Amino acid sequence: MLQYKSALRAVRDDFNPIIRAGKLTQQWIVDSYLQVEANNLNFIRTHQQQLRTELYQGLADHLENTAQNAVVKAGIPVILPSSFEGSPQNMNGARTQCPSSPNTVHRIYS
């Protein structure tokens, strides 16, 4: 789906009404992005068995026990893989990959 939407956005020599629509182009791009993200999240939600989430059974038990102690009805847990952009694992990995030296910017732009 992402490749299809990217192909529609591509600038070509012929007239493309999607690109020439002004503010509607921006709305179309946002809608396309949300469709792709919804499709990705739906895949993750429906393919939890293929993503090996059975390894997280201890976490699920802990969440269920905590919910019972707090008298809260627990929902269905969905484990996001680290490859999903914006997941806590992905954000933590991005933070550890960035340079931690404060003078790095100074060295790059000097």
Write down the overall geometry: elongated
Order of helices and strands: HHHHH
* Spatial gap, N to C terminus: 43 Å
Sheet-strand content, in percent, reads under 5%
User: Rg from C-alpha positions?
Assistant: 21 Å
Largest sheet: none
Number of domains: 1
Give unreliable regions as ranges. none
Structural class, please?
mainly alpha
Fraction in helix: 55-70%
> DSSP helix count?
5
User: What is the average per-residue confidence, as pLDDT, rounded to a whole number?
Assistant: 74
- Number of E strands: 0
What features would you describe in this structure?
It holds the Pfam family Helitron_like_N. This protein has one domain. The chain is built from 5 helices and no strands. It has helices at 2-9, 23-46, 57-69, 88-97, 104-109. The protein is elongated, with a radius of gyration of 21 Å. It has 110 residues and is mainly α. 55% of the residues lie in helices and 0% in strands. It starts with a helix and ends with a helix. The model has no long low-confidence stretch (mean pLDDT 74).
